[in-house]
Fold this protein.
Amino acid sequence: MPTEISVNDERRTVDAAPDTPLLYVLAGELELKGPRFGCGLAQCGSCSVLIDGLETRACVTPLSAVGTRSVTTLEGLARWFARQRGLREPPELHPVQRAFIDEQALQCGYCFNGITIKAAELLARNPRPSEAEIRTAMNGHLCRCGAYPRILKAIERASRELDR
Amino acid sequence: MSDDTALASFPRRDLLKAGGALLIGFAVPAARAQEPLGIALMLGPDQPDQKRLDTWLAIHADNTATVFHGYAELGQGAATALLQIAAEELDLGIEQMNVAALGSHRSPNQGATAASASVALGGQRVRTAAAEARQTLLRLASSRLGAPVESLTVERGVVSDTRAGGARVSYGELLGDKPFDVPFTGQAPVKPVSRYTLVGTSVPRKDIPAKVRGTYTYMQHVRLPGMLHGRVVRPRGQGAYRDAARVLRIDTSSIADIPGARVVRRANFVGVVAPREWDAVRAARQLRVEWDERTALPGTQGMYARMRASQTIDRVVLATGDVDAALASAARVVARSYHGPYQAHVPFAPNCALADVRGDEARVICSTQNIYEARAKVATVLRLPVERVALEYCEGSGTFGRSCHDDAAEAAALMSQLAGAPVRVQLMRQDEHGWDNFGPAHVAEVRIGVDAAGKLTAYEYHGWQHGWSTVETSEQLALGTPAADTTGPIAMELSPLNLGSMYEIANRKLVNHRVPGIDGYLKAANLRSPLDVSIAFASEQTVDELAALVGADPYEFRHRNMTDERWLGVLDAAANAAGWQPREPGAARGRARIATGRGIAVGTHTSSYAAAVADIEVDRDTGAIVAKHLYGALDAGLAVNPGFLENQIIGMLVQAASRMLKEEVTFDDRRVTSTDWASYPILRFAECPAVTPIVIQRTNQPSSGGGEEVLGPAAAAIANALFDATGVRLREYPLTPARVLAALRAA
């Protein structure tokens, strides 16, 4: 059944049953690499996207629940950030992505889709979070490699960058 | 309705039309390094000849080089570290280096990417191959430039004649995509360490920018045209390894409403395939299968007693001096038993694999840690000759040993063969959690003695555990292959290196009690730092207890019993980083609700040297432990890329906290019950300790393992910190709030 949704500022028509979780639409039909399967249970954060700016688990969000709201994936994050901040041109990367590279924060990196989405949501809401606030915000996202310490450092670094 | 023949009507591809061969752009270019690094494949020559230089290296016209090796990048940076080694010998810049994708028809067989082998073992091979390549290139340059080799220098792949008016030529101009066509002798002299400019520096990892951008292709992203989506259908959680689940009935009508969904089945191997992924997921959930499940497991509660009482095969791993006499004459002896649970790999992304089986040929893409072994396993389930199977590696999420990657590869292969189409199998969370090859549980009985001067004199350790399962679930279900486990000296049995060798102890006895793994236990395999967490938990707590008994500071006690400068080096490095102050055992204990404690421990895996210090807080009211700050020191010889080692230490410290405080596979008498992140919790952001990684650079020592060694000591340091904080020791981990609370109340 054709459904129209807004993904990364584009109107996309997708052909999927209304109960199909958004993840399968984004990763399968639209072939986006950002949102990715991790648990299918909203436990790990692997599939996270922003829906109207709120971090949302795409693996348990039915396509029919998206409606006219706008979906932003990792692919559209820099543009979303530019709009948030009123920048004329989107940066190449969201500042938190830049910080992840600078801190060499990844190990396998698979969880970084959700980590990045959540950190971007946090910084949009609270540009100068305390370490405790970062930990609380990020607590619903798992990293099996144990890369948490450098992720925390990188988010703090991105926060400082935003302040300048 | 039983259904063995659901596939009979399933459309099979006309193999003749397809040419009977797998020829999707598989032409073999003259210089095979020109293949795109994505998912290209050759069904051509079998395993490349390791005695040819071209097997290891290729030089391209654009003056870059590609290194071929047999190790999988597992998110640890090993791929970049190996490029650093090659670039150093070749006098190329790191940005001029590429690594070839791993494939069974392309990569040299260097065995498994396990036991921290990549840099420790692979590094030397890459180094000597690169040195030989440079020697060959200089010979070519010499004749091209008419200059003696002695007058040539190389910078970033440009060879210059240093004599007045001397000319220059680049590697690319000399060889550009043509083969070396020379044997690899391993005889070329390598660069002296003193001249290193790239090895020993923390160059950034090459894979990180694409991973951050979201453009990196993980296994889970790979698609083939015309593929179906497959899901395995199994009981929720494995039963006893010996008694694989048996299908009693399948009601295929239960998925009749799902478009294009089909059951694929061989014996007790059941899967569903569908053109759309969500339909495959739904079908796997919805398919009604009645299983014959046995009640052959001891349950989490009964496991240790069963292990201890089982008929074991015993082996004295080490016996020096006279332990019995030394224990009898010791001033103080501590004798204790310890229990360590099954723990799970549970990669963040459940394993995924893609297979295209056509007639007598198969192409499989998966995230195995051993492409050649996985290829043989796939050939077995397909009943094909091994040389007709091409297997490629694509990185998934961090796997930490043999998770379900080979099982996923077998499942995809079986489903493709049965469905007559390429099939992508993505395991669901419950499949990965429930059907893992778990790190085996361990029972330890330890006796250690000291003399009146507080010197360790006797060390006796008995360890019980079973070996590793050799048959993956899919094969067991599809072919009925009987369960079998294997054991061997490294990582499956007690390791002398980890059991007292760090201390000077004249009398030592280590006895391995091999539990029969097929006798009512779970499937098992190597989980990062196999056995080390359990061994360190037992051994280093007993040593700590002796220190307390003789009134010694735990750091000083270890120090006085060591002589090896590398063990002393890591012990001192961890203690110094933590600002260790001599502490009277238990002196820090107060009555406050939040008790703080500090512990220290040493240990390793099969090489290298590690020590850790843990600062923790214990909530006396809830029993909850929080690891506040972990310090880990690692001496892995020559650190090719210290930054990567730091990142490994950080990961090991966090995983040590996770494994010591939270992780435990649970099961009842029928099946595993920890099948998701709620029932198998791991450490989260809110609980994450501050970490201090310390890399000890030893340029005069060969590189040794760097991905496993800190886990054991860090975990044991946490257990020792609990004693420091509360005066209570736990003999079984994880140190859950319930266990801590019970121990505090009993104290």
